[in-house]
Amino acid sequence: MRILLTGIPSYLQRTIGSVSGLTVHHRPYFDEVTAKKDFLSQVRKIANTGNYLIGEGAAQSLRGHDVTYVPFWHLVNNRASDDLYEQANREFDICVFASANLLRPGYSADLEAEVFAKLKMPVVVMGIGIQRKEGLKELLPAGTLKFLDVLRNRESYFLTRGYFTAEFLKEQGMKFVKPTGCPSLYFAPDQMVRSLMALANPALADAQNIAFGGYLGSVADTIVDAHALLGPKSVASYVVQDEVIAYNLELPGDDATPVYDRARGRITGATQYKHKEKWQREHELIAFFDTNQWRTWTTSRDMCFGRRFHGCIIGMQAGVPALMIAVDDRMREMLEFIGFPYIEAATWNREADKRTYLSNFLSTIDAEAAIDRYSACEANFRNVLGQIGI
Question: What residues does the Polysaccharide pyruvyl transferase domain cover (predicted)?
Answer without folding.
Answer: 48-328
